[in-house]
Design goal:
alpha/beta, Rossmann fold, 8 helices, 20% strand, binds S-adenosylmethionine
Length: 207
């Protein structure tokens, strides 16, 4: 496994570009460390958007969800869901997922990392903003338990193939698109992709 990969410049500056000085906790995650030790699966949803998939997944499995988003409306929406349903094992972080993983999440405790329909940043000059690169893959794998999985989904064909190659470079193994979407719920991003006649690509890589 690759260890000392330098943090890309974009992620070193991201928080400041967002005008944030400090990541904020929701009221529901003051006991995050205890929650991570209970016997449910620890799942991180990175860039949950409006929270459609997180809410649906939580409603069916009641696992521990750590939800990270930089979009305030999504944060408020999920916090409301947590409050109304009196959920104790869902934590919401507002800010850059890379900073939050680095600073708040212990290594080797996560069962699943979900990255569904991340922004594809289609222009070459913007590829550096993508959430998947060798540095972030190394970080995600550090946070996963042995046997934990990273599940990525997109309807953007170039991002899909670029990510597949990145996974292959990182793991040293050939990766295949997954014909099984696992429990991934349908969101507006998937519906929009299907309306445009795009394929939906799932990649699932195991630590
Ligand atoms: C295209 S949306 C997908 C939302 C959701 N996963 C879905 O499938 O409906 C991508 C989301 O990722 C969030 N995002 C992008 N980069 C992020 C980062 N570094 N940290 C946290 N959230 C991020 C954006 O704010 C946006 O809401």
């Amino acid at each position: 496994m690759m260890s000392d990969i330098k943090k890309p410049k974009f992620y070193s500056n991201h928080r400041y570009r967002q005008g944030q000085n400090k990541n904020q906790y929701s009221e529901s995650n003051s006991n995050l460390k205890d929650i991570l030790l209970n016997d449910r699966l620890n799942i991180i949803d990175i860039g949950f958007g409006t929270g459609t998939s997180t809410k649906s997944l939580y409603s069916s499995d009641k696992n521990n969800y750590i939800c990270i988003e930089s979009y305030m409306q999504g944060i408020n929406n999920l916090k409301k869901f947590i409050k109304i349903n009196e959920i104790e094992n869902m934590s919401v972080f507002h800010g850059d997922a890379i900073e939050i993983l680095n600073e708040e999440i212990p290594d080797g405790v996560i069962d699943e990392i979900l990255i569904f329909f991340p922004d594809p940043w289609p222009k070459n000059k913007h590829h550096k903003r993508r959430i998947i690169n060798l540095y972030t893959l190394n970080l995600f794998f550090k946070k996963l338990k042995k046997g934990g999985i990273l599940h990525f989904a997109t309807d953007h064909i170039i991002y899909a193939y670029d990510t597949k190659s990145m996974f292959e470079e990182f793991t040293g193994y050939k990766q295949l698109f997954n014909s099984n979407r696992r429990k991934r719920p349908t969101t507006n991003y998937e519906r929009r992709g299907l309306r445009r006649k795009n394929f939906i690509f799932d990649l699932v890589v195991k630590k």
